[in-house]
Specification:
Strand order of the largest sheet: 2-10-9-8-7-3-4
Largest sheet: 7 strands, mixed
Number of helices: 14
Helix content: 40-55%
Number of strands: 15
Distance between the termini: 37 Å
CATH topology of the largest domain: Aspartate Aminotransferase, domain 2
Length: about 375
């Protein structure tokens, strides 16, 4: 490998949300942090070089992008996922979650219903509830250690609640499912039949494992909002740059109107520089990173089998976030969280923050140096092992 992912970089004292805010979040200070979805790896050195060049220039006035920015986006998503679009289809926002909130306000009215598939990334709940819309849940089916979609319930809930908007998580966080083309086609047909607009959060699309393949919802339907960002792929969340792709003219106009209402215009200079640089120069880094993360997944599987036989690892098809089933221990979520925090000295994401369907689960972020991952697994084994 040309990149060193084994190097442990101390992030303490950098105002890192992941490492510096345990006390502020009501937790002990001495925890090993494996929770929020950012990686403990530096961004690609090629991106850092372009950022350093921009910083050295020293002037940070209002900044926009030209055609070459859009060209690299179009190439990235076209070559990897067969998803074609053009410059006018891209709406830039500071984050995917920001865009989800825009979509909720732009495409629904107060008191209307939005459907999500639970357990799911917790900001989905927040952007619906905080904008005074009604949350409708279509719980995923968990059977024999795997998740699937309850299509009958999905359609019934849409009809019964007059649902206007569906926020899809693809690949799914936290359960790690990569939806098949057939599954997405079924969802698309139901949504078209009942005139439900789809917003597809595809921020994890570059992390897909094994024989699984990510299907961009935009390949199936042009009347959709595709939410993407380089933040997960290249560890750039703090620079705040997202690209929301909307081919439908009417939907794009409504989204832009809501964006203008927010008072937000150009993205930050460094976020734009990093985004363009990452999609231009980051392929080799990403290829090596994915090999490293897959090895972390393999290590985790073997460790759990040998030392944590009562823990079930939901087979990860995508993302670098693993979903661990501790239900065999019979703990309440509160008891489980306390054991993880106070006995194992780990900061993981307790399952119920993703919804009541997450009862008995923990989400662990394995995008870290292998020595850190081993430390975390040994801490779990000390408390939960047999």
């Amino acid at each position: 490998m040309g990149y060193n992912f084994d190097e442990v970089i101390d992030r303490h004292g950098t105002n890192s949300l992941k490492w510096d805010f345990a006390v502020e979040r009501g937790k002990p200070e001495d925890l090993l942090s494996m929770w929020v979805a950012d990686m403990d790896f530096p961004a690609p050195c090629e991106v850092l070089a372009d950022l350093q060049k921009a910083v050295s220039h020293g002037v940070f006035g209002y900044t926009e992008v030209k055609q070459d920015y859009y060209d690299v986006l179009i190439a990235w998503f076209g070559e990897r996922f067969g998803f074609s679009f053009n410059r006018r289809d891209v709406v830039k926002t500071p984050s995917v979650v920001f865009a989800l909130a825009l979509a909720v306000r732009a495409l629904t009215e107060i008191g209307e219903s939005v459907i999500i598939q639970t357990p799911v990334y917790y900001p989905f709940y927040e952007v619906i509830k905080d904008n005074n819309r009604i949350i409708v849940t279509n719980p995923l089916i968990y059977k024999n250690g795997a998740y699937s979609i309850d299509f009958e319930d999905f359609e019934k809930k849409i009809i019964a609640n007059n649902v206007k908007l569906f926020i899809l998580c693809s690949p799914h966080n936290p359960v790690g499912r990569v939806w098949t083309r057939e599954e997405l086609e079924k969802l698309s047909l139901i949504c078209k039949t009942h005139q439900v607009i789809v917003v597809s959060d595809e921020i994890h699309c570059d992390f897909v494992w094994g024989e699984n393949k990510h299907t961009c919802f935009g390949v199936l339907d042009e009347n959709v909002i595709i939410a993407t960002a380089p933040s997960k792929t290249f560890n750039l969340a703090g620079l705040q740059a997202a690209n929301i792709i909307v081919k439908n003219t009417e939907l794009r106009h409504k989204l832009k109107v809501e964006l203008n209402k927010s008072g937000y215009s150009q993205l930050g200079t460094l976020g734009l520089v990093a985004c363009q640089s990452a999609y231009t120069n980051g392929n080799e880094w990403l290829s090596e990173l994915k090999i490293y993360i897959e090895e972390n997944i393999s290590l985790t599987k073997k460790f759990i089998t040998s030392h944590l036989p009562k823990v079930k690892l939901v087979e990860p098809q995508g993302t670098y976030l693993l979903w661990l089933d501790f239900s065999a221990y019979g703990f309440s979520q509160k008891e489980l969280d306390e054991h993880v925090t106070n006995s194992a000295k780990l900061w993981l994401d307790g399952g119920t923050i993703f919804g009541t369907d997450g009862e008995g689960f923990q989400r662990i972020n394995i995008a870290c140096p292998r020595s850190v991952l081993l430390d975390a697994l040994k801490r779990l084994a000390k408390v939960f092992g047999e």
